[in-house]
Specification:
alpha+beta, Kinase-like_dom_sf, Protein kinase domain-containing protein, ATP binding
Length: about 80
């Protein structure tokens, strides 16, 4: 997990785990709000196809309409 993320958010409990990473609940003291954070372990990416999928995921999510079951993306930096 990056130092920038640790400095900006209080990382709370793990709420999920996938092939490449971990989903955690995070708290932003500056916004006084909870967020969900997905961190990726890049060393687990086996090949270029994995890297391509990882790069495309946030781009695809930006085109999805608002929905209660779809996360909204927020910048981490």
């Amino acid at each position: 997990m990056s130092e920038t993320l640790k400095n900006k958010y209080q990382v709370c409990e793990e709420i999920g785990r996938g092939r490449f990473g971990v989903i955690s609940q995070c708290f932003s003291p500056t916004k006084n709000s909870f967020f969900t954070c997905k961190t990726i372990e890049k060393s687990l990416l086996a090949d270029q196809a994995d890297r391509d999928c990882l790069e495309k995921e946030p781009k695809v999510m930006l085109f999805l309409p608002p929905h209660p079951n779809i996360l909204e993306l927020h910048p981490s930096g």
